[in-house]
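User: I'm curious whether this sequence folds into something compact or stays loose and floppy. Could you predict its structure so I can see for myself?
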Amino acid sequence: MNTKTDPSLAITRRNALQLGMFGAAGLMLSDLFTLKAAGAINPLKAKAKSVIQVWLWGGPSHLDSFDPKPEAGYDYCGKFDKPIDTNVSGIRIGQTLPLLAKMADKYSLLRGMTHGSNAHEIASYMVMTGTKPVDGIVNPSVGAVLSFKKGYGAGYEGLIPPYVALTKPQGRFSEAGYLGSKYQPFATGGDPAKTPFTVEGVVAEGITDTRQQGRRTLLENLDTFALAMEGNPLIDQMKKNKQDAYSLILGKARSTFDLSKEPEALRTSYGKNTFGQSCLQARKLVEAGVPFVTINSPGWDTHKKGFEVLTQKLNELDKGLSTLLQDLSSRGLLDSTIVWCGGEFGRTPKVDWEAPWNGGRGHYGKAFSHFVAGGGFRGGHVVGSTDLRGEEVATRPIYPWDLTASIYELLGIDFNSKLPTPDGKTEFFSPLADSSIKVQSGGLLREIM
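Assistant: Here's the prediction. I'll summarize afterward.
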């Protein structure tokens, strides 16, 4: 693919929010830089416009969720020994997911996921970036790549940043990698299950719109530097970004973060908890045109009392994820939105019943499951399988880069292209395109694309 250089003197709205927006001279001097864009858009025909990534932080048990193994016996399946049929013949999932079982025709299960690492940091990096660790290079996550390819590097004009994390960043590595801080996710903070949802830099608890407007008027009256420099291109750019920031705080964009206007029955269907309301918030964000939203759901690192913890976690996942699929579908958004659910690895198939673990499972990167729906992924299929005990991938291995490259293709992004680095060079963002990196691959997910 041919690449183009697209210089831009952009002072971003997110930077303005993070720096407090105020102090014209300081902002102008501290946040001025040139973006060298390399291949922001390519001629692949996109089926998807956006991605909602449901990140099950810590690594969910594949045997207890999307790849049940009741035949393996109690030491492997514990009390989750009664998997349920779905609405697709031949597909069973865990007994704690009855709502998702009724809509298996809308999603496909990737039971052949593998990478072999049992370390949170390395496994998270591989799954989130779709690359292997290489000395001296920190690759960007899929969200950061989209933030460049379909966001700031592609003329994105939305007031809300193109990469949003609900509610905290992943934290185990720099999601932006060599792309730089501009492409970090905008982490909302707060809790969408509370009213108001206090979004960092957008919605402040206890400060009314009237008070915010008063602050704006006072600041404009005091900003004599900007008044004196009126007509200067950089000052005009700064004013535009300040106006955009206020539009985010006081204008239409703010309503995207106001869940109180959603029907109460719908909010209840999602689940009146942080995860469920994050799913609802993610729907509102993609509806507003945000290309990539990550829901970082903690608590899946179930070393101890796994069945007790998972009973709650899987119930929340069942309600939130099933309602998200239905809500997107009913609004005509599922065809253009990829829903990608999974964590950095699975859990050890054999349960550790001894104290202090009392039914926990360890880290397991040899075999695990992910879930994809929408945006060009066909539903009602299972790709890959594990053996009788869920210990090894038996058929059709799927490596993280196979999955991410498939997502890129559905988004119309050429994974054989490169991205710019701060030193003016370019780097491949997929090992499938880089002949210097040797990786195993099962190929793109053509079975469901």
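Summary: Residues 1-42, 214-222 have pLDDT under 50 and may be disordered. Residues 36-197+258-448 form a domain with the Alkaline Phosphatase, subunit A fold (CATH 3.40.720.10).
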